[in-house]
Design a protein that fits this description.
Intramembrane-cleaving aspartic protease (I-CLiP) that cleaves type II membrane signal peptides in the hydrophobic plane of the membrane. One of its GO terms (biological process) is membrane protein proteolysis. The chain is an alpha/beta fold and 499 residues long. It has 2 domains: 138 residues, Glucose Oxidase, domain 1 (3-Layer(bba) Sandwich), CATH 3.50.30.30; 222 residues, no CATH class. It contains 17 helices and 13 strands. Helix 6 crosses helix 9. The protein starts with a strand and ends with a helix.
């Protein structure tokens, strides 16, 4: 099955372009519109074209209805009657494969056969019955082997994990420095700094890693079953809430690096419900909220993907800054569960639902929208079929947790870049994502579970390298180097002096 474009001309004026499906039998269609001939369309009589047409054909494209005989029978009858091509109107809204019968091994068909969607075919039939002069150009553009959009999307995903990992490692190093200073100087100011600056991190446990699959699967099925326009609107609202938080967190952190904004970032005001909020956060919040609202209102315009990617990237970076895997054991369980989850819902779900649940949800089928918002997307720039190259948040966040863990471990264990694990984990992720796009192109655009390729590369590289260097046991059970709790240490010292 391959996609075909049918450019219609009504009374000599270009009209709509219809997308159909070419048959697996017959000749290869022209790939460029300028080389495709303008050919007049004629109605079949009888409409199913299962017997010789009553009207005489002299090279026209014949328009017929599906049913009552095989696709090859219709095409043979049309060819014998003098048609140059056959357009078959499906009796349903979707399109299906057109193949030969099992016993037709020596079939020779010299004209192309294309199936049209029911609504488009009915429209053409109505024009022909109203005596309009209808002609078509039939061609099948070839997709480029590699689109620039995939390169930029690869850079976007890798760059997001890179930035998030360095922010996470920097926060962990700052926390370690505070602990060391508290060991030397037990002051209330230091204790306040510790609790105020580093209390928002969440470590994933073994239980939560395992439960991830169950909750994620339930949520995916809910998306699949409830997929509709109003449900997408709910997802847009939830995405905007998360996007505002992510954009605000990243904006404040970035501005705080400049000395002009440091005072505003370190000065707080008490607000009801929210508690202590910095003046810099208050100043950035309206901008972030307005950005998300503008994107939500204009998300259907051609360039809205830029706003969606900005909100998505900042949200992912914020999640990777807050949520952490404490050791390699938890990371292995999490990624293994995600690996199985991705494979099941892309491939195995077809056995129960007759279609890939993950792909249907990602595309936003039956919703009237161009996919769910929880994706990074870039338009395919040189693809004649258009569309977007996309990657889900989970394909970045889940392996990103392990990559961020590797850099935190390297910094806290005082390992150099060459002797550490981050550069290897980062390279493994990039290579795994690259292999995903290679597989996607080899499979003729059929959706691929990215974690099928990313997880073995990232997790396998980490485990093999840890085993080779003798760090695997420590990485597996302990993880990041720990420092003694300053509060307990200082209490013990005080008790010793009193005795």
């Amino acid at each position: 099955m391959y996609a075909v474009k049918i450019q219609t001309l009504i009374d000599g004026v270009e009209d709509i372009e219809i997308v159909g499906v070419g048959a697996r039998f017959g000749p290869t269609l022209e790939s460029k519109e300028k080389h495709a001939n303008h050919t007049k369309v004629a109605l079949a009589d009888p409409p199913d074209c299962c017997s010789k047409p009553k009207n005489k054909l002299t090279g026209e494209v014949i328009l017929v209805w599906r049913g009552n005989c095989s696709f090859t029978t219709k095409t043979n009858v049309a060819e014998d009657a003098g048609a140059s091509a056959i357009l078959i109107i499906n009796n349903r809204t979707d399109l299906i494969k057109m193949v030969c019968e099992e016993n037709q091994t020596d079939l020779e068909i010299a004209i192309p056969a294309v199936m049209l969607p029911q609504d488009a075919g009915t429209s053409l039939e109505g024009l022909l019955r109203s005596n309009s002069n209808v002609s078509v150009q039939i061609y099948s553009p070839r997709r480029p082997a590699v689109d620039v959009a995939e390169v930029f999307l690869w850079l976007m995903a890798v760059g997001t994990i890179f930035c998030a990992s360095y922010w996470s490692a920097w926060s962990a190093k700052e926390a370690a420095n505070v602990r060391e200073s508290l060991l030397k100087d037990d002051t209330a100011e230091h204790q306040h700094t510790q609790h105020a600056g580093y209390s928002g991190m969440v470590d994933i446990s073994m239980t939560s890693a395992i439960l991830f699959v169950a909750f994620a699967s339930c949520f995916l099925v809910m998306l699949y079953k409830l997929m509709s326009f109003w449900f997408i609107e709910v997802l847009v609202v939830l995405f905007c809430i998360g996007g505002v938080e992510g954009l605000q967190t990243c904006t404040v952190a970035l501005l705080s690096c400049f000395r002009w904004f440091q005072h505003a970032g370190e000065t707080f005001i008490e607000l009801p419900v929210l508690g202590a909020v910095s003046y810099l956060t208050l100043a950035a919040s309206p901008f972030c909220l307005a950005f998300a609202v503008v994107w939500a209102v204009f998300r259907r315009v051609s360039f809205a993907w830029i706003g969606q990617d900005i909100l998505g990237i900042t949200l992912i970076i914020t999640v990777l800054q807050i949520v952490r895997v404490p050791n390699l054991k938890v990371g292995t369980v999490l990624l293994t569960c995600a690996f199985l989850y991705d494979i099941f819902w892309v491939f195995a779900s077809k056995l129960w639902f007759q279609e890939s649940v993950m792909i249907v949800v990602a595309r936003g089928d039956r919703s009237g929208e161009d996919g769910i918002p929880m994706l990074l997307k870039i338009p395919r720039m040189f693809d004649p079929w258009g569309g977007y190259s996309v990657i889900g948040f989970g394909d970045i966040i889940l392996p990103g947790l392990l990559v961020a863990f590797s850099l935190r471990y390297d910094w806290l264990a005082k390992k150099t870049l060459r002797c550490g694990y981050f550069i290897w984990a980062m390279s493994a992720y990039g290579l795994g994502l690259f292999i995903t796009y290679v597989a996607l192109n080899l499979m003729d655009g059929h959706g691929q579970p990215a974690l099928l390729y990313i997880v073995p590369f990232t997790l396998g590289t980490f485990i093999v390298l840890g085993k080779k260097r003798g760090d695997l046991q420590h990485l597996w059970s302990v993880g990041e180097p720990h420092f003694p709790c300053p509060h307990v240490q200082l209490q013990s010292s005080s008790s010793f002096k009193d005795s």
